[in-house]
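In response to reviewer comment 3 from the previous cycle, which asked for concrete evidence that the modeling workflow produces usable outputs, we include below a single protein chain processed end to end. The sequence was submitted unchanged, and the resulting structure tokens are shown without manual editing.
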Amino acid sequence: MFPSSSTHRPRRRALLGLSAAAAALALAVSAPDATAVSAPTVAGAQDLGVIAQNSHILFNGAFVSGRDNGQSTGYQGHSVWIFNDTALTDNSLLTNSGAMTDDLNGADGITLTSASPYTSTDTGVPDSLIPMTLNEYAFQATHNNGCTTASDTYCGSVFAYWPGAIVADPVRHRLLTFYGKLCRGQSTEGAPCYNGFAGQEQGNGVAAIDMDSHTVTRLDAQNMPAPVHTVDGDDATMLFGPGQGYGNNSAFVSGDTLYGYGHCENFRCRLGRVPLASVQDRAQWTFYAGDSNGQPVWTSDESRAVQVLDSGGAGGTVQWVPGLNAWLDTYMAPLSNTAQYETAADPWGPWSAPTTMFTGRTPSGGVDYALYAHPEYAQNNGLTQYISYYQPGTGYQILERVDFTAGG
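The workflow returned the following structure tokens.
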């Protein structure tokens, strides 16, 4: 059986990747002993209400009023969460933020009152986690200081960094989060950084959250076939260019290998893998290119990667569930409030037909998204899952308990 994993995850508004191929080397690996997957069913689903978030009113009155996404991973007895756009009640907006809790019993709900991914007792105001480069600071200053759109093509442009999947790397005392770099802020249609909050995707990288020093570093990409060019020039931190973003949709760790889903088109995603210790080394990434004589083929030529996985609005979660003896993919169906799941004997599939878990609570006419499972909360050998999703009309994260019954 494929080695079980302890981590996972994904993300919003399908992102990502880089097109040029590395050296064309196809690597066929031995297939795991995959026992046939019997179809599970949902025994029950329970709405556990709103996830409580940081609401510590300080002298300046700022606290969280809403934040989307909300992916997590277990780390040394804690659950660490990372979010995308985070609105504070002083009308400020962060493009990402984090939180930690040491309460891993989701049956009575989840409370995320910390303001950082490092401690569960922090009562301050959340801050952005993913730092800007000096070049990005300079670009923003240049194009937001007395400019006009008539004289400056980029006038009003700002950067945003949306985290994708987050996984634990305890050997190196860190968490890794994939992220997409966006340029946004311009209001004129057709401008290079136009398109509201979604902005224009520039590329995708990996950030390391050091759990000892409490610092976040954007890892410089190594052995790139070509640099990723963004509006502020070639960006050494971009591992994948627009359209790919392996790991931004979903990711998990199995043994010493990180698997990341990305390069999604029409909500169907491809799969890449890399040694966990070398996540920033583009030359060590290989991509699933189908089967040959019953064995999976992995290639360094990303152009040969094939679609393997269904995805939802903002991504989903892939995890190994011992109680199902299978891999489980959970997500919110695109432009829908229908939470779905599918199973497979291998992370590259073939996956079962999507099946409904539950329906989100947003009233008719609204669309929920960013549905993620949180495997560190799982109970009953993984048959009881705790799943969150984002309700954009309220800014709430909603928690759902789903109980599966293994197939016969």
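DSSP finds one helix and 27 strands in the chain. We consider this sufficient to address the reviewer's concern, and the full set will be provided in the supplementary archive.
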